[in-house]
Amino acid sequence: MRRFTLAIAAMAGALLLLTTGGAGATASNPPTDRSYLALGDSVVFGFIAGDGNAYGNAANFIGYPDFVGRDLKLTPINASCPGEASGGFQFTSSQAGYNDNGCTPYRANVPLHVNYAGAATQMAFAVNYLKTHPNTRLVTLGLGANDLFILQRTCGADQACLFAGLGVMAANVGSILSGLRATGYKGVLEVVNYYSLDYGDQTQFQGSQLLNHFETLDAAANGAVIADAFTGMENAAAFAGGHTCLAGLLNAAPGAAPSCDVHPSITGQQSIAQAVEAAYIAAKQAGD
User: Fold this and answer.
1) pLDDT, tens digit (0-9, with 9 covering 90-100), for 200-241
2) Is there a contact between 8 and 109 (Cβ–Cβ < 8 Å)?
3) Domain spans of the chain, in order of start
4) How many angstroms separate the Cα of 150 from the Cα of each of 8, 60, 106, 159, 211?
5) What is the DSSP letter of 247?
6) Looking at the whole model, is its pTM more than 0.90?
7) What is the pLDDT of residue 253?
8) Is there a contact between 87 and 97 (Cβ–Cβ < 8 Å)?
9) Which of 211, 233, 218 is nearest to 151 (CA)?
10) Residue 243 is inside which H or E element, if any?
11) Mean pLDDT lowest for which of 13-27, 92-106, 195-209?
12) Superfamily of structural domain 2-8+29-287
């Protein structure tokens, strides 16, 4: 488990804290009838660790919401934040329950894909967006890996501590989903699960399944469906023996080949997008 927590939980990635200007899109930009609100962490954001010059313009980062928007003819509003954890998603640093793996300093120093326009948290932005855009077609949430990264640091080898923390994360995700529904939003709501960094390694494989179990625990209770990125990436990596790096599904990283970052490459983002699109189509068909 420790090997897993050191790897998969790092999906938020390293952060380069730069003081650059720039402004993202605001909530008032997209047409209300074709909106897609994407929420979550660095995987959703399309984060790439590398040249610091890229961070001054969020458009340099392409995540699966871009592909979903293109394929489903929706306007993506990507409110994700690299390093976002389930407590920080809902609470500010002065509130109980807050946790963070880098979103707060990232957001303070470089632009996100959207401008929160005074909203203190990603949750506050999402609630305001859905209240003012009631005809939004799709909302996705990809969140939880940063909680695990924090737990790896604080719990060490204490499994009881780890599982207790994952329980808190699950409750937070449930609260977020409930809060999104409480806005009156009745469209398709998806929880996007996580992929394994190496499907051929049972520790990685089972660890990813454990994270996904807790992340999606309260999905059905809140009328949310699961976008199965885990299986989609597994199938995409099958030709390479389950190695997502060798399959080109992760960003290349400096070092002896093969060496990869934990974040999805463009090909990996497209695979996740396909899982999101399949869940959306299935949910729409089930509702007809």
Assistant:
1) 999 999 999 999 999 999 999 999 999 999 999 999 999 999
2) no
3) 2-8+29-287
4) 12, 27, 17, 14, 13
5) T
6) no
7) 83
8) yes
9) 211
10) none
11) 13-27
12) SGNH hydrolase (3.40.50.1110)
Q: Give the other-Cβ count within 10 Å of 154's Cβ.
A: 12
The answer to whether the peptide bond before residue 258 is cis (omega within 30 degrees of 0) is yes
First to last CA, the chain: 43
The residues pairing with 142 across neighbouring beta strands, listed in sequence order, are 40
pLDDT tens digit sequence for 151-210: 999 999 999 999 999 999 999 999 999 999 999 999 999 999 999 999 999 999 999 999
Amino acid, res. 154: T
How many CB atoms are located within 10 Å of the residue 53 CB?
11
Taking Cα atoms as reference points, which of 14, 91, 62 lies closest to residue 273?
Answer: 62
Distance of alpha carbon 36 from alpha carbon 135, whole angstroms = 10
Residues in Cβ contact with 158 at an 8 Å cutoff, skipping those fewer than 6 apart: none
- Cα 120 to Cα 111: distance, rounded to the nearest angstrom: 15
